Amino acid sequence: MVSVENRLDFESDQEILLHGPDMTNKIPLSLESPSTTVLQPRKLRRVGILKSIDVVLIKAKINFLLPFGPLAIALHYITKNNEWVFFFSLLGITPLAERLGYATEQLACYTGSIVGGLLNATFGNATEMIISMYALKNGMFRIVQQSLLGSILSNMLLVLGCAFLCGGIVHHKKVQSFNKATAIVNLGLLLMAVMGIMLPAVLYFTHTELHKGKSEIALSRVSSCVMLIAYASYLFFQLKGHDAMYSSVDGNTEQASENTNESSDEEEAPEITKWEAISWLAMLTIGISVLSGYLVEAIQGASESMNIPVAFISVILLPIVGNAAEHASAIMFAMKDKLDITLGVAIGSSTQISMFVIPFCVIVGWLMGKPMDLNFQLFETATLFITVLVVGFMLQEGHSNYFKGLMLILCYFIVAASFFVHVDPPKTDDD
Question: 178 near 400, Cβ under 8 Å?
Answer without folding.
Answer: yes
